[in-house]
Structure formats: C-alpha cells, structure tokens
C-alpha cells in the first residue's frame, strides 16, 4: 500500500503541527484556519447581523403599531429619502425593511451565525479531532460569508433602497427592475450576495460532513456520537442537497433580470406597455425556491434542537430519553423536508388532488417533531434539573417548538390555509417555531459553551433576567398575531387603517410593538453580559457543567490542536448521567468501562475486553490529514 | 490522530492497519461537491420539465457540432484514464502527455460548444426568447463553467506532474482529477441526451 511512503511525509507534518511557532496576528485571528477562531468569527458576525436585523424589525413594528408615526429621527441612520416631511416612513422602504429583516435573520443569523458558530466549534471538539477536515476551505467559507455580508449590508444604502418583496423574492416583481424601487439595484445586490452566501454555505457543509465521517477519534462510533453532532451532520446534508437548488432559482432570476430571458415572465404590462417576455412561469420560481425554502427552515432549527438535546440531558442529570428515537426522528424530518415544499403554494392554483398529497406529507412531519418534543420532556421528567441560563433557554426552545408546531398543523391543512395563507397567522407560526425557537437554541448554546470558547463564565443573574423577559416578551409579541391572522390581517401590508374590520384590532398590533421593544432591550442585557464576560467574567473550570462530552476534557482554553496530549479514546455514549452505583452523577465518554466496575451493566462488562481493541485502532496511513 | 501515529514505531506500519477511515478525506469532499453539482443540474432539468409541460414551447434542431463535441469529451475521458494508469505505473512522460492531451481535448470541447452556440444563433435561437432556447444556453453554459473548474484541476495536476510530485505512491491529485473529469463528462452526456430527448 501507499502506507510506507507516506510515513515520512507525515513525520514532517507532525513536526509542523507541534512546533508552536508564533503565528502572525493576521494568520491567528483574521485569516485563521483554526476552527475555534472561525467559530468565534461567525458568532460575532452573527451577533452583529442579529442587531441589525432586530433594529430593522423595530422600525417597521413602530409603523405597524402606530401607523404614520413620526420616524424622522431615523433619517441620519437610514437616509433622508425614506421619510416624508412629517417623518412618515415610505411604503416602499417599509417592504424593503421587512425583506431585509427576513433575509438577515433566516440566512445570516440563523443559518450562518448558528451553524457556522456551533458546527465549527463543536464538531472537532466533540468527535475528537484536531481541526476540521480542511482548515483552508473552512477559512474560505467564512470569508465568502463575510463578502456576501458586506454586499448585503451595502445594499441597505443604495439609492433605490434594498431589495423589496419579501425574503422569498417572488417574481415577476423581483424580476423586473422597473416594477418597484425594491426590484432595482437592491435586488441585484441581494442576488449576488445570496449566490456568494450559497458558495460559503456549501464549503462549510462539505467540511462538516467530511470531518464527522472521516476524523472521529478512536472508539467514536456512530452510536456513541453526541446528538449535537448528529444534528449538525444532518443540517449540513440538508444544506448540500438544497442550497444548489436555491442557486438554480437565483441564477434563472438573474438571467431574467439582466439578460432578458423569460423563465419566470409572461404576459406582463407595465404602465400599459406589454413587455416582450413570453412563455415564462412565475410559479416555477416558487417550486425551486421552496424546494430549498422548506429544508432551510430545518437547517435553521436542527442545530438548535441538537444543542438542546445536549444541554437538557446534561442539566437534567439524566440520560437523554430515546437516543435512537432522536436520531431517527431527525432523519425522518430530514427526509420529509424534501417532499413537502408545496405546502407554501396551496394558493397558487395547484391541482387540489396534489394539494391533498402535500397536505398528507406535511402533516406526517408532526410525528417525528412530536417524538422529539416528548423526548425532551421525558428527559427532564424526574431529573435533578439544574436551572442554568442555558437550560432555561433550552426549555424555552421546547416550549416554542411545541406552540409554534401546533399552528403548523393548522396551516398544513390545505383547506384551512385558504383563509390563513399570507396572514399574520403564518407570521406567528414561523416566528415561534423557527425564529424564536432557533434563536433560543443559539442563545442557549452561547451560555452553555461560553466557558469553552472564552475560558470565562457568563453572569447567571443577568442570564435569568434575559431569559424571563425574553420568553414572556416573545409570547406577547407573537401570540396576538394569531388572532390578527384569523381575523384576516394580511402580512407585509404597510398599514391596516384603511379597513374597518382591521381597525378594531389596532390595539393588538400596538401590544406586539411594545413587547418587541422590551425583548430588544432584554437582549441588550445579553450583549452586555457577553462582551463583559469575555474580558472580566469569572474564570471557568475545565468542565463547569459536569458534562460528559469530549470538549470538556480539553484544557480550559483549548489551544491549537485542541488537546495538548493524545486525543482521548471514547468508550461509552455521552449520556451516562446519574448512573446507579457510580460515585459521581456523570461519567465522561473517555472513561473506560474497566474503570467503573461498580456501575457497569452486564453488557457493558462484556465490552471491557473490546477496550484494548479500540485503543489499538490505527488510522489508515495512506490518508494524509 | 497525529499523536497516535507519532507513538507508533515505523516498522509497525507494515502490519495491516485497521481502518476506521475508509475514504481519503479529499476524495470524500470531492464526492460531496459532486453531489452539490448533481443537485444543481437536477433542479435545472426539473425546472425544464415543469416549464415544458406548460406548453408554449418552441422546438429547434440541435446543431450537429454538439454530437462532435460530445465525442471529443468522451475521448478526453479516455486519455484521463490513461493519465491515472500511467501515474500508477510511475510512467512520468506518459502521465504528462496524457494530462496534456486531456487538457487539449477539454479546450477543444469548449470551443466546439461555443461554435455550437453560434450555429444556434444563425438558426434564430437566442438566449432571449422562448424558454426552450434559453434553457439550452443556460445548461450548456453552466456545464462549461464547471468544466473550467475541471480544467483548473488539470492544470494543477500537470504542474505537479512536471515537478515530479506525482508517482505511483502519491496518486491522490490525479485520482481526484480523474473523478472530477469523468463526472463532468458524464454530466454532459446526461445533459445532451436529456436535451435531445425532451426537445
Ligand atoms: C408540524 C410541523 C409543521 C407544519 C405542519 C408546518 C406547516 C406550514 C405551512 C403549511 C406553512 C405555509 C403557510 C402559508 O404560507 O400559508 C408554513 C409556513 C412556514 N413554516 Fe411551518 N410547519 C411546521 C413546522 C415548522 C418548523 C419546525 C419550522 C421552522 C423551524 C417552520 C417554519 C415555517 C416558515 C419559516 C414558514 C413561512 C415561510 C414564509 O412564507 O415566509 N415550520 N408552515
Ligand atoms: Cu414549509
């Protein structure tokens, strides 16, 4: 085999890796190839994007809660031209704000910020690898993301304003630069930015999957992987399969916009003038978009669910309930995610029979989702729960996942969707189940892994305040929107004061706005806590939550290569909490069964003789790493 | 992992290593990238079918030159295969030549595709116009863009071969290159048959 020849090549690489030569500042913190640094870069970028996205939402919430309110004081930030003399927001800019809010939150915060941070940080640490499969591709992935961020951000300030028409950018509106201000330069930049974003996301996902498949430490078989890793892997696979399809959709749209093709355009009149475009179909775009769009919502939620599994098991001091059921339900969700996209299109005049098929498939998703919810609850049941801020946010996630999922079942019925489609009911549904749940997962992850990221603890009291204000606030923001939706409030409207039937609900819209401001304020506390603790937080210990997974076997602040010595070998699954007979209420994954005779089950005693074998595993030497 | 290797005396290497990893990570990544490309073209061709089923579809004849370019690309796959074989046999001069031939045929393919576009335009089929024609340009263009990446890998392989970095013990780059090239070849055959069949 090629083994021997590689030995010397390899030996050189070792020296290279272990010689701790000083890296320049730029190589270490900016163009870094270390997965931990890249994770932090994603985290900080995600936080900045979340601030921008949240701020934009406050602007249009103010308009919705108090139609015609004087927002003139925002002129210095957003530009003179978007406000009239009385300070009233320009309606075209309103829809652009909604569009940018959605795009930023879904893609830049909850896809890049969430997966980018935690997949990067946790995959190598939890599977026992020195770094990602390719540090270089990982770095590229971040910098593509950065470039796409810069383009998207700059589109906020172009003359016609940023893209308008919603985060789903349906043609024909988005395909015709003359149709609306939000379809001009802003839309072009949106498309360019998203194309680059897709490249970044694919580079990241390919790296995550390869690392999990190829770089696990000795003994880390698939059935011993933490659920976080399962979730990140499934997320990456979803991305690999669905983002190219969004690329397709965007590519054809670019051709329609810039090269005069008619993929999505037909029979259009602007100002009484017929356009030459013939033979296109705008519905085609919706099919392509939602083939990504639906998996995308799971790309957003799965990592959050994975981290929740880990945090809930650790802080309930109990093994996760139904480890395999969790994996199979994620697998089921992943599979179903690809065959339900048309539930976003019930109202496009599709064949009612086809609608029923998609309705059936959609409703089946409730089954694996419910399995997950029940498993979280049964894991907590009778546990010695430690209410850390991370644990509270995880419980909050489960709460949102359930309350938002229930409305999904209502929307999934094609007949009910006739009334509810494109109303605030949908807005309430996805902000609870996706927006808030995934956001809570992300925040929980930050509280939980902060000690490993920065070697310090975050302040728990501020964490509790953050949690209670946010969970109460989020429910107050979105719960009333269900009623608005049932009453028929359409989404994406600038104001509702034009209709009598909507006028009488103005107080609910106002309530939403006030609560949104409160939630935003609570998150400023979180930001303060975050940045303060990075520098002045209490020093952390190596394993502050008494957790089982491998990342807690590293030093307080893991350096380049993660483990100073050998990478630990894994002997058991990650959920040995409160095992009867054991001295402590947790047994980390790297403790062999031979060291814990007092708590072993019979079949685990059997496994003792395999331990030598696991330790003897040698990696295939023809594989350069 | 590295630690683990370090501890091991060199002579143990000759023992049958137990593999936890069965695929080289680079090869694995290439396959993942191939999957993303498959998804891209799968979505394009499905969009084509969905749009075509709606009617208002203008048919046109596919210029003959696309048959020839297909043959050229198929031949380039054969020479790519020879590159890999000669790398495995450590036949350096043969390796360089085969890679160069593959590259030349790749360029020839691109030129022929371009000529094909010109023929289409003489026929009155433009990028603008009925989606049947637009799709044709987009499919061929997207494939050509991916082929450029393939040519890039070929150049890298050629440079490495020239620097004598490739031998029977170190065929990774040629293997990756061959996988990508054969895939791009197959992809074109798929697109061509698709376009012929669903005209
Ligand atoms: C039982 C599970 C679920 C069902 C049956 C379901 C069903 C639906 C349906 C039918 C719609 C379309 C409503 C309309 O536009 O008329 C919808 C919208 C949406 N759902 Fe769900 N959903 C479920 C869970 C989820 C989850 C877990 C997420 C995210 C993590 C999610 C995110 C969204 C989003 C983002 C939209 C709105 C997209 C838009 O139009 O902007 N849903 N859901
Ligand atoms: Cu959906």
List the keywords:
heterodimer; A: 625 residues; mainly alpha; Cytochrome C Oxidase, Chain A; two-stranded antiparallel ribbon; 62% helix; 1% strand; disordered N terminus; B: 199 residues; Four Helix Bundle (Hemerythrin (Met), subunit A); 75% helix; 0% strand; binds protoporphyrin IX containing FE; binds copper (II) ion
Report how far the terminal alpha carbons of chain A are from each other: 17 Å
Query: What kind of oligomer do you see?
Result: heterodimer
CATH class of chain A: Mainly Alpha
Ends apart, CA distance between termini of chain B: 54 Å
Order of helices and strands of chain B: HHHHHH
* Biggest sheet descriptor of chain B: none
CATH architecture of chain A: Up-down Bundle
**Residue runs with pLDDT of under 50 for 5 or more positions of chain B:** 1-20
Q: What's the CATH H-level homologous superfamily of chain B?
A: Cytochrome c oxidase, subunit III, four-helix bundle
The number of E-state strands of chain A comes to: 2
Largest interface: A-B, 68 and 51 residues
Listing every helix as H and every strand as E from the N terminus to the C terminus, the arrangement of chain A reads HHHHHHHHEEHHHHHHHHHHHH
Summarize it.
The complex is a heterodimer of chains A (625) and B (199). Chain A is mainly α and 625 residues long.
Question: If you had to describe this structure to a student in words, what would you say it looks like?
Answer:
The complex is a heterodimer of chains A (625) and B (199). By secondary structure, chain A is mostly helical. Chain A has a single domain (2-12, 36-266, 274-536), classed as Cytochrome C Oxidase, Chain A (Up-down Bundle), CATH 1.20.210.10. Chain A contains 20 helices and two strands. Chain A has a two-stranded antiparallel ribbon. In chain A, α5 (91-127) crosses α15 (424-454). The two termini of chain A are 17 Å apart. Chain B has a single domain (27-197), classed as Cytochrome c oxidase, subunit III, four-helix bundle (Four Helix Bundle (Hemerythrin (Met), subunit A), Up-down Bundle). Helix content of chain B is 75%, strand content 0%. Chain B has helices spanning 2-7, 25-53, 65-88, 92-123, 131-162, 172-197. The longest helix of chain B is centred in the middle third of the chain and has 32 residues, at 92-123. At the A-B interface, α1, α7, α8 and α9 of A face α1, α2 and α5 of B. The structure holds protoporphyrin IX containing FE and copper (II) ion (CU). Copper (II) ion is lined by residues 294, 297, 343-344 of chain A.
């Amino acid at each position: 085999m090629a083994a021997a020849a590689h030995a010397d090549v390899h030996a050189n690489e070792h020296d290279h890796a272990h010689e701790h030569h000083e890296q320049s500042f730029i190589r270490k913190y900016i163009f870094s190839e270390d997965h931990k640094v890249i994770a932090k870069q994603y985290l900080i970028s995600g936080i900045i994007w979340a601030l921008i996205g949240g701020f934009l939402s406050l602007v249009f919430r103010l308009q919705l809660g108090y139609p015609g309110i004087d927002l003139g004081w925002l002129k210095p930030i957003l530009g003179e031209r978007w406000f009239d003399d009385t300070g009233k927001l320009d309606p075209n800019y309103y829809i652009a704000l909604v569009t940018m809010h959605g795009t930023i939150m879904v893609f830049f915060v909850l896809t890049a910020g969430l997966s980018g941070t935690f997949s990067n940080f946790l995959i190598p640490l939890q599977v026992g690898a020195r770094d990602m499969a390719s540090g270089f591709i990982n770095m590229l992935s971040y910098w593509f993301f950065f470039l796409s961020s810069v383009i998207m951000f700059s589109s906020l300030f172009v003359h016609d304003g940023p893209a308008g028409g919603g985060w789903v950018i349906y043609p024909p509106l988005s395909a015709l630069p003359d149709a609306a201000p939000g379809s001009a330069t802003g839309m072009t930049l949106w498309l360019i930015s998203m194309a680059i974003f897709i490249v970044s996301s694919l580079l990241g996902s390919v790296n995550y999957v390869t690392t999990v498949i190829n770089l696990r430490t000795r003994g880390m078989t698939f059935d011993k992987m933490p659920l976080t890793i399962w979730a990140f892997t499934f997320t990456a696979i979803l991305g690999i399969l669905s983002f190219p399809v969004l690329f397709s959709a965007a590519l054809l749209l670019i051709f329609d916009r810039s090269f005069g093709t008619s993929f999505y355009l037909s029979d259009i009149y602007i100002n009484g003038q017929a356009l030459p475009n013939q033979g296109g179909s705008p519905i085609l775009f919706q099919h392509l978009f939602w083939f990504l769009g639906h998996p995308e919502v799971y790309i957003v939620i799965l990592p959050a669910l994975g981290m929740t599994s880990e945090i809930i098991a650790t802080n309930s001091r109990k093994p996760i309930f139904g480890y395999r059921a969790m994996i199979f339900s994620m697998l089921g969700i992943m599979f179903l995610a690809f065959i339900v996209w048309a539930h976003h299109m019930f109202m496009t005049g599709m064949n009612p029979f086809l609608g029923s098929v998609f309705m059936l498939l959609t409703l089946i998703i409730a089954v694996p989702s419910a399995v997950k919810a029940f498993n979280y609850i049964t894991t907590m049941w009778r546990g010695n729960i430690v209410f850390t801020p991370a644990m509270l946010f995880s419980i909050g996630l489960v709460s949102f996942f359930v309350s938002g999922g229930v409305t999904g079942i209502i929307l999934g019925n094609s007949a009910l969707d006739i009334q509810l489609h494109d109303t605030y009911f949908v807005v309430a549904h996805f902000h609870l189940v996706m927006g808030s749940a995934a956001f809570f997962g992300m925040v929980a992850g930050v509280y939980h892994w902060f000690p490993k990221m920065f070697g310090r603890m975050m302040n728990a009291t501020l964490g509790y305040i953050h949690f209670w204000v946010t969970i109460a606030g989020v429910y107050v923001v979105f719960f009333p929107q269900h009623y608005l939706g049932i009453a028929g409030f359409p989404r994406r409207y600038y104001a509702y004061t034009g209709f009598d039937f909507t006028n009488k609900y103005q107080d609910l819209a106002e309530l939403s706005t006030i609560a949104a401001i409160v939630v935003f304020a609570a998150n400023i506390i979180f930001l303060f806590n975050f940045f303060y603790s990075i520098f002045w937080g209490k020093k952390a210990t190596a394993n502050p939550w008494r957790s089982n997974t491998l990342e807690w076997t590293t030093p307080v602040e893991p350096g380049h290569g993660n483990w100073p010595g050998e990478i630990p070998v894994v002997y058991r699954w990650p959920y040995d909490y409160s095992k009867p007979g054991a001295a402590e209420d947790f047994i980390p994954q790297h403790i062999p069964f031979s060291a814990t005779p007092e708590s072993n089950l019979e079949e685990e005693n059997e496994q003792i003789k395999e331990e030598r074998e696991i330790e003897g595993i040698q990696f295939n030497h023809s594989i350069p790493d | 992992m590295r630690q683990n290797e370090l501890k091991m005396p060199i002579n143990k290497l000759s023992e049958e290593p137990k593999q936890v990893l069965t695929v080289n990570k680079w090869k694995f990544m290439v396959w993942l990238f191939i999957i993303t490309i498959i998804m891209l073209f799968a979505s394009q061709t499905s969009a084509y079918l969905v749009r075509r089923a709606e009617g208002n579809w203008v048919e046109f004849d596919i210029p003959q030159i696309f048959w020839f370019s297909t043959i050229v690309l198929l031949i380039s796959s054969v020479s790519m295969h020879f590159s890999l074989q000669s790398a495995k046999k450590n036949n350096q001069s043969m390796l360089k030549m085969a890679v160069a031939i593959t590259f030349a045929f790749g360029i020839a393919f691109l030129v022929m595709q371009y000529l094909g576009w010109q023929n289409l335009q003489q026929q009155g089929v433009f990028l603008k116009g009925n989606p049947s024609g637009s799709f044709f340009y987009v499919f061929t263009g997207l494939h050509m863009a991916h082929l450029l990446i393939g040519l890039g890998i070929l150049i890298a392989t050629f440079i490495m071969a020239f620097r004598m970095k490739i031998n029977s013990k170190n065929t990774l780059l040629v293997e990756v290159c061959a996988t990508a090239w054969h895939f791009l070849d197959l992809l074109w055959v798929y697109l061509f048959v698709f376009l012929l069949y669903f005209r």
